[in-house]
Amino acid sequence: MSDASTSMSDASTAGPMLAADGTPLKRSLRKALRREKMRALMLIAPLLFFILLTFIAPIADMLFRSVENQIVSNTLPRTVIALDDWDGQEEPGEKVYQALYFDLFVAAEAKEHTKLGTRLNYEETGISSLFRTTGRRSDDIGEAYQDVFEDVDPRFKEAGFWYDMMTAGGGEPDTALMSERLGTMNRLIADLASGDIGFAPAAEISALLPKTAEAYTDFAIFTALADGDVVAEEDPWEAVYAALGVDLANAETRDAVQVYEGPGADALRAAAAAADQLPAGGFKSAFLDVDEDWASQGVWETIKTYSASYTPGYFLNSVDLELSADGISPRDEDQQIYILLFKRTIFMSLTIMFSCILLGYPIAWLLANLPVRTSNLLLILVLLPFWTSLLVRTSAWKVLLQQQGVINDILVWSGIVDDANRLVMINNQFGTIVAMTHILLPFMILPLYSVMQTIPPSYLRAAKSLGATNWTAFWRVYFPQSVPGIGAGSILVFILSIGYYITPELVGGTTGTFISNRIAYHISSSLNWGLAAALGSILLAAVLILYWAYDKIVGIDNVKLG
Q1: What pTM did the predictor assign?
Q2: Sign of the CA dihedral 191, 196, 198, 203?
């Protein structure tokens, strides 16, 4: 006993057990295990990357698009800020129209104002044409100021004169203004090139003429980075003259100009003296001259309501609600279509699924119980539709089901149906259910067949030998073992049918289309990708909820493909 105690004592004092290379055994085992995990990770890395690229990333992008609304704040940054103080009770003041003009002018130069109009037109009909019209005529508003200043001093026509005045002859640059305007322009024009602008506004001139320096900086950035031209050689935008008019309309600025001694000081003093010749009425009057709809309170409420970078508006529209200045409210009755489409999609998908079960179960039973040669021949017939184009199969059903089609002709010929009362079987829910049941039936038969093949026939013989009838043997012995195949086929058929849009579009008419048809419409025709993404997200959520319910009721572990 003492020798054993001595040995254990010696082992404990000798330190940790070592591996062959002299490192502690525990550390060596952890290192080997970590190496095995890294090797396994590298083996599945291509699959993980493929899933991330083709599945996770598109879903994440869809979810982001369903709430993203940065186009308003990026295109009209000054206007959004100016509208913060607007209470929505009266028409916006001159400050808001002034901000809108300078934002809209830059957006029109970048050809982004039409995208903004399209976005807001989803919420308020008519805004798209309003933005297009005003964008085309934004030059005219600035030309009214340009004419006044060029009459006062011809040097205002010269590009070099403007460049020297805005740089103050090479004075200290206003880097903060330059950085701020670069950030704004980059948000507005996503593909704006980077490079040397060859211009920076002078701190002295930006303090004296803040609006003018801001407008000229926008012009310089766009000229150098978007057009690739030399700033000093290009005539400034009409908006720059309008900005100068805004600055000189301020009495304090006119007083400061009198003591300014930088480049163009005499021209600025002459322009200040002619301030009373500037267009009367300001920017509000100019906008109303372009289009009286700018006086509509609904237009401004829409701009303000959707000025946030992220919005629940798309999801609200997806459930027949809308986001307005007063909060959330129901849409007009003639626009409430999405809840109906969601209900129709779920109902018809379930109907198609049960139709496939009723038709597919007997066929799968025959395939599993007939001799191999016969079952293989029948299996080829089941797979035959996969070798035919989906459009061809759908078009064939149009020929069969239409009122002058094959089925109606046979019914009339046999006397079952009168020629004047031919059945309406196409362009409705019936036509969609029939065509999609035919298309999706193989997806039910194959899982059922693969599961039924594994059920030993001896089980039925044993049940019958114990006194069970044919029905009892089937219902108590055979059917429970085929439930995993029913579950697998049901999930396949339901998920495929809920996302179908080609077949319902061709044979569904107005009452047989799915929500997926509206998603396809918004993606390819109306280009309302935000609403399409919201509808898709809701559809995805509905499928996941039904999947969860199926798991709770049946158990996803019972689903087998054979």
Answers
A1: 0.80
A2: positive
